[in-house]
Amino acid sequence: MPHGEELNPTLLNNCIVRPVLYWFSTVSLFSMGWKTKGKMPDIKKFVLLAAPHSSNWDFVFFLLIIFNYSISVHWMGKHSMFKWPFKGLLKRLGGVPIDRSGKGKVVQSMVKAFEKSKALIITIAPSGTRGKVTKWKTGFYHIAYQSEVPIVLGFIDYKQKTIGIGPVFTPSGNIDADMTSIKAFYAQFSGRYSKRSITD
Predict the structure, then answer these.
(1) Domain hosting residue 123, numbered range
(2) What torsion do the CA atoms of 121, 185, 129, 78 make, to the nearest 10 degrees?
(3) What is the pLDDT of residues 82-107, one digit of tens each?
């Protein structure tokens, strides 16, 4: 986890690698019968939600869509993911190891990262896990609100085989009302395992 420093560039910052990854993602999504919807907003700094999250496949489709949109994003993942021999690659793909035992420290560290960065997109799965959940974690909201950046609602829908970018949401500080509005948007989408995608 970064201690408030500006995060390192990802593979999508490389002008040679970027078109290769775009081609790969376009072919992959087409061959699997998936389509993209929406467009990435012209905003330099924001929190990008990834929901619903119920399967390891969500991460694969997440990578495909960021390749397809050719955007450099960072994503938070539990630190146990970042093991040899994939640790280096995951970090180059934008991964930021998170120790979930330090909840408050994670929020403050990401807020400092936003403060120090001229452009930064942080992707967070609000469920916090691909397993069954009864309540979303609110860390993403506190990071966005304290950093004074918007939340962009990214989604995946296995029923319609669609993955894309939804509206831009500006947190008001009324977390209960805002979370209700955000969850209402996601109610229309189906995760791979819908029973794990509870958004109450």
Answers:
(1) 11-193
(2) 10
(3) 888 888 888 888 888 877 666 568 89
Instruction: List, in sequence order, every residue forming a beta bridge with 163; answer none if it has no partner.
Output: 36, 156
The pLDDT tens digits of the residues spanning 172-186 come to 999 999 999 999 999
CATH label of the domain that carries residue 30: 3.40.50
Peptide linkage before 150 cis (omega within 30 of 0): no
Q: State how far the Cα of 150 lies from the Cα of 46, in Å rounded to an integer.
A: 5
Residue 46 lies inside a defined structural domain of this protein:
yes
Assessment of whether the complete model's pTM goes beyond 0.90: no
Residue 199 lies in a domain: no
> Quick check: 147 and 111 in contact, CB under 8 A?
yes
**162-169: strand order across its sheet:** 35-37, 162-169, 151-157, 45-51, 120-124, 74-78, 95-98
Residues in the chain: 200
Total domains, the chain: 1
